[in-house]
Protein: GspL periplasmic domain-containing protein
Organism: Nitrospira moscoviensis
Amino acid sequence: MAIVTECVGLDVGQTGLKAVRFRRRLSGRETIDYFQHPMPFARPEDLEPARRVRSLRGFLWQHGLYATDRLVTAIPCQDLFVRTLSFPFKDAAKLAQVVPFEVENLVPMPLEDLAIGSLVLPPGQTGEGASRQSKNSDVLVTAAPKDKVAEHLRFLAQADVEPSAINVDAMALFSVTQYLREEGAQVPHDLAIIDVGASKTTLCLVREGRPVVLRTILWGGNHLTHALAVRQACSFAEAERRKRTMAVQQVEAWLEPLLKELRVTLHAYEGAERGRLTHCWVSGGGSKLREIGTYVARHLGLYPVGPRQGFGGNSPRAFSVAFGLAIHPKIVRPRWRFKPSPDGLALDLKSVTDAAAPKGAVSKADRRLAIGAALVIGVLALVDVSVHWTLNDRRVTQLKRALQQQYEQVFGSSAAPGDELDQARVRLETVNKALAQVDSSQGSALATLATFVKHLPPGLAVKVRELTLDGTIILIEGETSSFDAVEKIKQTFASASPFQDVAVTETRVGAAPNQVVFRMTVTVKP
């Protein structure tokens, strides 16, 4: 059975859902699947959480993404405080103690309301790939309000999703460059990654192979579409369709707000760090605009990346954030290794939030709940046992009463319980005697009467007043119309082979006209 490493990156945007499923087998073979689902956003009701939850649940069911147990999502940079701090020492234990105090001086919120994550950045790399020697430490610090993380987790929980990790969207962009570098691509060490989305643009500045600036610019492709819709007096959908057929030079007037924010960010970083970036990669859904990568790079004074740097046609431009989440370095192991690399730079706000939870208070509350639950369960168990005992006793009483009634119906109320076997034998013998009367195999009464009736003279009216059967002897008292009829009946039975000893014992005139009463004895042969 092949060992497979699988992870799903889920990018929940304002106008669509994007997911990337990354699989790597033990042999090193990789498969990457891309999934996308657009979501309406023009009306206020389209942005309701319940509707977005239904869309997310249907999206995951449709593409079978619930089957994975490793799913990574992201929180946008705009919901975080992000800084790169420098310290004059490298002791990891000291850094863990000092970072919260530095953040407390920079963020206007109590530390207990923040989920603080930090990454100790590796030494910078030269253009040849060699690490620089330094006594200082650079730490990338992120501070997210816990209510933002909790809100994100509640939204996913409503869609029955439990993420394995929560990254930052800009760090997911950096993970793409890490992956390309592991694959052998010549990724520039000084790079500006610009992910143009529908409602925002995410910026990740990479200096000497390390992420140094993470930022969100509140300008996206929808701003350009709205401007086109107003300029050309058409609907938003029509403007979106036309935008996809245009070149960047046709819409450059509306790109100036984005370029201005990018220039400000680059100049602020370069002025403080005294370093300059060299290349630029434009990704996201907005990268589908023709020649936008070259246009943005030229106006920022950078070189656009291409296949030579590893950003060819197979690089996931439109799914860059989702792809970066799917190759989370803390989850997906590097090729030919069985454990994730400890050097992988990626954030996990979920683990930070879980680690910062008040475990002691939770444990006491859990103990109280456990004791209360045990008491309730004990009481319910006692009630259950008593109810079962009562019901069983009532059932036994009812069965005894029913058996007694059946016994009295069969053997009578005078029969004393205890001699049921003798009573049954007596009743069985009585039944056998009654059955013997109708059993034709032993010369029963019914067979004898049947033989007698068959031999009555046809066409002769005979009214039977009394019929007595004593074994094989039939005593009959009847009425007929004349003495000749009586004689005819006698001759008929006397001449019949089944009978013997036919005798008429009495013949007299009846009270009614044409009525003759007679008595006859007939013996049936055995």
Remarks:
- Confidence is low (pLDDT under 50) at residues 338-342.
- The first strand starts at residue 4 and ends at 12.
- Residues 359-411 form the longest helix (53 residues).
